[in-house]
Specification:
single chain, metal ion binding, rSAM, nine-stranded mixed beta sheet, three-stranded mixed beta sheet, catalytic activity, Radical SAM protein, globular, alpha/beta, iron-sulfur cluster binding
């Protein structure tokens, strides 16, 4: 049973070392999309929740932000450890409240989501200068998607991306996490390339409490892939990612798409730019939001 509680927090903005922001904001603690591979489940350590990840949500309230103009030209990333457009946002509207507070601040806005609920705030988002929105999509297979999360169906994410793209908002198709030999990256690129400016690639990392969950899922649903997953996630070998990198680079070249590594400083082109984050530990914090 889902546990929801409303909490007070000192500040909604936190300084961050993420390469795409000076500040991060998470209007909720926890996320009811309950992605089985979610790295953000580590937040349970700080929130003292005994519930399973995905079965609790803290709704944040904060004191009104003072002197918001001091954030002008700073970079804000909304959704680093929660989806700001989880279903409960329809009721509590904490993400919308934050956008309302910051709309005249001059802050540079980036939002990450798996929900088309973001379309509710389309006009508000457009009031920011050069806002960016990324949609996480790591499969076109709804059966696999349902196994992995409770987020909105893939077609709805793609349609929301198309609408934002056509409204002039910089959009990113974030193919993450890539499940070896399960995520059809080329198919996703073919589907999304007409309505996104960037395509980000991030490999599946398994650590913490969700590693045995995913490994057992592979053992049960994809037993033929188990040796590969053991090679990657038990033996720590990088061969697969190196092979996939080469394969995708050749694919990008065949489609006339630019292919780069760990770079968030690029300006949108007429065709989407593919950014490989397989080696994201090499990222330096010098990126600028366009």
């Amino acid at each position: 049973m889902l546990k929801i509680q409303e909490i007070q927090t000192k500040s909604i903005l936190s300084k961050t070392n993420l390469p795409i922001g000076d500040y991060s904001a998470n209007p909720y603690t926890g996320c009811t999309f309950a992605c089985k591979y979610c790295y953000a489940c580590f937040m349970k350590r700080f929130s003292n929740h005994p519930e399973v990840w995905g079965e609790f949500l803290d709704v944040k309230y904060w004191q009104p932000l003072k002197n918001t103009q001091k954030y002008a030209n700073k970079e804000l990333f909304i959704g680093s450890v929660t989806d700001p457009y989880n279903p409960q946002e329809r009721t509590y509207q904490r993400t919308k409240a934050l956008l309302e507070e910051l709309k005249d601040s001059g802050i540079k806005l980036s939002i990450a989501t798996k929900s088309d609920l973001i379309l509710r705030d389309l006009e508000l988002i457009k009031s920011f200068k050069n806002p960016r929105v990324s949609f996480s999509i790591n499969t076109l297979d709804e059966n696999f998607r349902r196994d992995m999360d409770r987020a909105v169906p893939i077609k709805r994410r793609l349609e929301a991306m198309r609408i934002l793209y056509n409204e002039g908002i910089t959009t990113t198709c974030f193919i993450s996490p890539i499940f070896p030999q399960i995520t059809d990256i080329e198919a996703i690129i073919n589907e999304a390339q007409s309505y996104c400016h960037f395509i980000w690639l991030e490999n599946l990392n398994l650590r913490g409490s969700y590693k045995p969950v995913i490994m057992e899922y592979i053992r049960t649903k994809y037993p033929k892939l188990l040796p590969l997953y053991q090679e990657i996630y038990t033996q720590g070998k990088k061969n697969y990612w190196q092979w996939l990198d080469s394969k995708l680079k050749a694919f990008a070249e065949s489609k006339g798409l630019e292919y780069v590594y760990n770079d968030d400083t690029l300006t949108p082109r007429s065709k989407p730019i593919i950014v490989n984050y397989f080696y994201h530990e090499l990222i330096k914090k010098n990126a600028k939001v366009i």
